[in-house]
Amino acid sequence: MAPTRYHGPGPGVVAVVLAALVTFIMPRITAGRTSCQVDKCSIEYETAMHSNRVTRGSSLNYCRILQAYSECVRSTGRGCRGNMFYHTTSTLVEAWNLEYNCSYIVLHAQITEEHIDTHVPKSRERSECEYRHSRKKKGPISYVYCAMFGDPHLQTFTEQYQTCRVKGAWPLLDNRYLTVQATNEEVALGLKATATTKLTVIVKQHASCTQEKTYQAHVGSVPAEFIDGTTSSGSDDSVTIHSKVQNKYVVIKLRYASLTVVVRQVGGYFTFAIKMPSELVSPIRTSGLDLCVHGCPGNELISVQNMSRIASNEFSSSPTQMVLSRQEALEKCSQSGLKDFYLDSCVFDLISTGKTDFSSAARVAMETAKKFGMKRTVQETKKVELVANGVAHNLGVAPILLSLIFLFSQYCIYPS
To answer: pLDDT value at position 133?
Structure first.
């Protein structure tokens, strides 16, 4: 049975005034300013609405137009800092997205259409580029899984669950087969929250199976090919890249390493996932910075105290940011069917940013883990890393206790 649909607040007087500002008044105020192109986004939105004969409401057609509008507005952000029209438009688009439940509607439509195939076709003959081709070890392969999503939340190969700052470029993995790097930027001006805006995957040369290949994706550009224009490597396509959703979602496979990488843009940010044999993961690293292997450094972990500060809007230097209450965030995340770590992460993101795209990112991360066969990480999460005063405590956190933690964390003292 589909999750109960969350009904957000109606547009009210504020949304009506904002709509009037966006449509009639602000374009005149910003006339002649070429550095901020947000007015073009509004024109494209209105054109799409009229040409497709769509009206505002909780429909897939409208939500896809609104999603395109949101992405266009977000892409103009750097040239629009301090522009009243930009900030008004951004607030209005987010209000409509929440009111019509568009993040869930678009995501649900995509999930029903997609399927990740993580298995090698049975008809393919074994070759020297098959995993374990020349190895004595037989039997079923034991896999490990790493994922990063949201603001950003990390699940390591060793099943640590963390929330980190990690602003800038950080290595997720660096081994003999590939290197993965994530670049995280501030979610919005005035917020200390960050999210992934760029992903780089370098497939390293491996015998006769592949030449070195580099893949790069940044917000608004998720190509279905490597930077040299190819979509495969090796005489029998031992490395492949496939697009699941155009300019949104790609899967990279290394057959000789039985390794699968998922790069996906959800809203204005990326989710990342990788599944690989556990015997290929070595915790012995010289740098110790691979986030999938070692987790986030202690000074980059978000603490319980900061969670309560965010909830009271003290973590933001901008009082104008649209931040949801604890109850609103919990209701919004719960209606998406999220559990355990994914529910915790979603509530944290919505409280700290108010951006409903993060509920979709958490849902995508949970669905990807399920499709990869990582059911335990969804249904039987053992622990969530909550760090106080730089010291980690492994606390069993059931979803039903989440709201209590947020309500009382500012009054509780956690032992060090």
So the answer is: 56
CB atoms within 10 A of CB 183: 17
* Beta-carbon contacts of residue 47 (< 8 Å; ≥ 6 apart): none
Rounded Cα gap, residues 47 and 29, in angstroms:
21
Q: Is the pTM of this model over 0.70?
A: no
Give the separation between CA 274 and CA 292, rounded to whole angstroms. 9
- Asked if pLDDT for residue 15 goes beyond 60, the answer is no
| Whole-number pLDDT of residue 137 | 62
Neighbours of 381 (CB within 10 A): 21
> Which range among 331-340, 347-356, 398-407 shows the weakest confidence by mean pLDDT?
398-407
Return the HEC string of the chain: CCCCCCCCCCCHHHHHHHHHHHHHHHHHHCCCCCCCCHHHHHHHHHHHHHHCCCCCCCCHHHHHHHHHHHHHHHHCHHHCCCCHHHHHHHHHHHHHHHHCCHHHHHHHHHHHHCCCCCCCCCCCCCCCCCCCCCCCCCCCCCEEEEEEECCCEEECCCCCEEEECCCEEEEEEECCCEEEEEEEEECCCCCCCEEEEEEEEEECCECCCECCEEEEEECCECCCCCCCCCCEECCCCCEEEEEEECCCEEEEEEHHHCEEEEEEEECCEEEEEEEEEHHHCCCCCCCCCCHHHHCCCHHHECEHHHHHHHHCCCCCCCCCCCCCCHHHHHHHHHCCCCCHHHHHHHHHHHHHHCCCHHHHHHHHHHHHHHHCCCCHHHHCCCCEEEEECCEEEEECCCHHHHHHHHHHCCCCCCCC
**Residue 236 has which token pair?**
């029998």
